[in-house]
Write a structure and sequence with these properties.
It contains 4 helices and no strands. By secondary structure, it is mostly helical.
Length: 116
């Protein structure tokens, strides 16, 4: 499997854990003290780091640091928007589309000329 594919795969899985660790407690632990949510989130975040660190190491062999960071941000939004709509029941807004298009522009500029 090419390094970029492994990187995207691992970063996507990492972001699923990260998004749940950061925001899942808003729905599932809203009636609990914040420190319980923090401890559980730290436990979940461990799995995020176990995927994110190797993903970044693999990705850095074929991407520049700015490209790797931009890839991470795009994946974060691709995971976060469905999570917020489906799990946290947040209403989708047209602004999500505009933000996504802005990120596509950022991806274009950071990856432009990568092959040369």
């Amino acid at each position: 499997m090419p390094p970029i594919v492994r990187t995207v795969f691992l970063l996507t899985l990492s972001n699923v854990f990260m998004t749940y660790a950061w925001y899942g407690h808003l729905r599932t632990l809203a009636d609990r003290p914040w420190w319980i949510a923090a401890l559980l989130s730290w436990g979940i975040a461990l799995f995020e780091y176990l995927l994110q660190v190797p993903a970044n190491r693999i990705g850095f062999t074929v991407l520049t640091l700015p490209q790797l960071k931009m890839l991470q941000e795009v994946i974060t939004l691709l995971v976060f928007v469905p999570f917020s709509v489906l799990y946290l029941k947040q209403a989708p807004r047209l602004d999500f589309l505009w933000a996504g298009l802005c990120l596509c522009g950022a991806v274009y500029f950071v990856f432009r000329g990568h092959g040369s």
